[in-house]
Amino acid sequence: xxxxxxxxxxxxxxxxxxxxxxxxxxxxxxxxxxxxxxxxxxxxxxxxxxxxxxxxxxxxxxxxxxxxxxxxxxxxxxxxxxxxxxxxxxxxxxxxxxxxxxxxxxxxxxxxxxxxxxxxxxxxxxxxxxxxxxxxxxxxxxxxxxxxxxxxxxxxxxxxxxxxxxxxxxxxxxxxxxxxxxxxxxxxxxxxxxxxxxxxxxxxxxxxxxxxxxxxxxxxxxxxxxxxxxxxxxxxxxxxxxxxxxxxxxxxxxxxxxxxxxxxxxxxxxxxxxxxxxxxxxxxxxxxxxxxxxxxxxxxxxxxxxxxxxxxxxxxxxxxxxxxxxxxxxxxxxxxxxxxxxxxxxxxxxxxxxxxxxxxxxxxxxxxxxxxxxxxxxxxxxxxxxxxxxxxxxxxxxxxxxxxxxxxxxxxxxxxxxxxxxxxxxxxxxxxxxxxxxxxxxxxxxxxxxxxxxxxxxxxxxxxxxxxxxxxxxxxxxxxxxxxxxxxxxxxxxxxxxxxxxxxxxxxxxxxxxxxxxxxxxxxxxxxxxxxxxxxxxxxxxxxxxxxxxxxxxxxxxxxxxxxxxxxxxxxxxxxxxxxxxxxxxxxxxxxxxxxxxxxxxxxxxxxxxxxxxxxxxxxxxxxxxxxxxxxxxxxxxxxx
Amino acid sequence: xxxxxxxxxxxxxxxxxxxxxxxxxxxxxxxxxxxxxxxxxxxxxxxxxxxxxxxxxxxxxxxxxxxxxxxxxxxxxxxx
Lengths: 641, 80
Known about the structure:
Chain A is α/β, with parallel strands linked by helices. Chain A has 26 helices and ten strands. The N and C termini of chain A lie far apart (71 Å).
């Protein structure tokens, strides 16, 4: 391999969590790896490449670790690469140890361990732009002498120093290997203490600080955000405003999209001759895919909100605030970040549990993460809330619809915490460790990074709409149109006797106790492929049924729907509420099932955990939906919205 | 006015393509799960599928990471 080493140079980025490795990775390779301002964003190694002076350089971005003796699964991935033990990964030619300049003393601990290995190493002093504000300055030349390695100052966010870093990486293998030998200034026995003594000696020679009087601004902000009373209240307030914004701001944008789709439908009707193809395009594709696409503004706003939380540095504070409530339930404070990530998607959230070192705490977190309402549930919530909850204003700022949406998210969160407590007191019993989490510096979210994160998720949503939801809509349309009714029949009668209608009637006994009919049953079965398919299925069925020519919003069509052959409302408010609660709890996501299998045991053991997860969530969903429906009937909600 | 046979043919093509797409997709998902059940010669794709935002990370080397984690859990990893 040595012979081909110069043709492709392998460099591994290693450093403490949240020191800017992934931002540096993106700056070096031009990739768009997820970055955020909290520790534990990268939990898998990621590879990218660039070419420098004719040499292809392969860059490996590793999960953060504080030392070469970490014990969390994500740290193990980094350590295995450093020690050349990672299956299928060759030992890197160069290590680039990334230091957060503001926290150089702590970061040097890992750096000295890597330098002791005697491998070609470049020290990257990142975020040097923050030093003046922190009242610090670093003598880089003295640091080079102390460490015996090349030190390159960088500001990865603005690509400063990246050219010099590429040059240093290319030259590193040519330098003679000089393993660092720590000179011990005192006779301390403990290895870590000796290492910190050596680092303190280096710090005294290389870092100068201006004396600061009084607490820093971030300390004063933390005093409020981490307050025992104000902290949780502020967190709740932030969430409430965000979910209200999903309705208030996204509503008009969604209406615009709806009207644009109406225009497309009108154009389609004028261009396509009457027949099955026109029905397929307008009722099947436009009715199905279109009903999902109108939720793009809400998805974008949700991810903008999550991005601001991540990049501002608030997420670690929120984890600290919530730890007080989570620890009595048996969850590690580090579980909070995967749980909050679950608002976006359960798949990365389950991967994020790799930062939790204790196996049983990690398993408990994996089991409950899908109860957090992911973005795929948002279109379902938004449709059902718009259909069954009035937009009455409350307190001047909020509406009942916004409060209902917040309620769904809180219900999922509450259920996750209670379920975790049950798991931790039964099959996953163990002591709960205390939370130690780094509080990153507050930072103004970068519009470019936010825009990239939002676009990435919107693109995923649109790709799903254009592929799987499109295909399912087409199939559902075909199932709803064939076999043909003998003789003339209304659209509703045709649907009832079609393949789709027969499937629906077969599952109706399961959903009837929830106050729902066979059409909802069909949509629920179809949404096992992906939750948003519930919306597209309803869009397809209600485009082809009662209001075939009416392009009014789907929510209104659901509200006005009548039960088969009667004037009774098809769906009462109580049934709508029960259905909402069903979707809060049900695990209808094949991707989540797959990643649970992978992360809980990679074998039949993993299949067992995934089956338990799917089963308990489905039972919880049906049971809670039934209770909500019956209680709704008892308090007089058995009426049309 | 489109002839009835052309109308029917167009619908059949679109519906058939959609069905084939879903069939291929489902097959790929099952194959992606294959290595997780301890069997050989399986696809090295990420089990979470290609429509996930984490797919860039997931596809990179999900299977190899999975093997690394298995080693960790089996106690074969000895930290310094």
